[in-house]
Amino acid sequence: MNPADTRSPRATFTSIETSTAEDWQLIAKEFGGFARQLPDRILTHLKLLEGDFGGFPIDRLSHCLQTATRAHRDGRDEAYVVCALLHDLGDVLATWNHPDVAAALIKPFVPEAYHWMVAHHGIFQGYYFFHHLGMDRDMREAYRDSPHYTLTEEFCAKYDSPAFDPAAETLPLDHFEPMLRRVFAEPRHSIYRAALD
Question: Which residue, 58, 46, 53, 85, is CA-closest to 69?
Fold first, then answer.
């Protein structure tokens, strides 16, 4: 908890239905500062992946960095590279549905196609290993009609799937930090955006 939070003015309602416009002006003011700190919280969470191998050849942070490095070196735009960096961010908190966490986090800040790519990358990545677990490696075929199928297939083939190489170039997190801060500087779409402008 931030020590300043105990000294900040607070709304006095005990139920949202009795809240006032003045309460929400106060909350909106606090929200702005909190929202601007989102990149810091993301960076902190990414660091939780360091040293977590889960049986893989490299730890989860290195995998994220290597995926982003490959996309960056291939000339992808910053929003795409940040998606590559964050695609497995949910591994720590959402063991059974990690793509959903990353997709929810990036949704207000990236194009819809990139959001879809991150949300579905787990199924598309499964093409390379599901059959080893007795699962259907062609599960991604259920999405063949999506306009984002090819984008997601390419993400896994070129960046996600080969990013487990201990000898491959892996740029450090601080290389990507300015990109992350720019991408998360302002949401493209959110139900709250109009109220806070």
Answer: 85
Max CA distance (Å), the chain: 59
Going residue by residue through the chain, which has 197 residues, state the pLDDT in tens, using 9 for 90 and above.
454 566 788 999 999 999 999 999 888 888 888 899 999 999 999 999 999 999 999 999 999 999 999 999 999 999 999 999 999 999 988 989 999 999 999 999 999 999 999 999 999 999 999 999 999 999 999 999 999 999 999 999 999 999 999 999 999 999 999 999 999 998 988 887 766 55
Rounded Cα distance between 90 and 173, Å, is: 17
Examine residue 106 and state whether it is found in any structural domain, yes or no: yes
The parent domain of residue 52 ranges over: 40-183
Q: Is 8 exposed, middle or buried (0-12, 13-18, 19+ CB in 10 A)?
A: exposed
Tell which residue, 107, 103, 139, has the closest CA to residue 119: 103
Q: Quote the number of domains for the chain.
A: 1
CATH of the domain at 96: 1.10.3210.10
Residue 74 falls inside a structural domain:
yes
Please report whether residue 10 resides in a domain: no
Could you tell me which of 151, 162, 3 has the C-alpha nearest to residue 67?
A: 162
- Domain-embedded: residue 63: yes
Rounded Cα gap, residues 54 and 59, in angstroms: 7
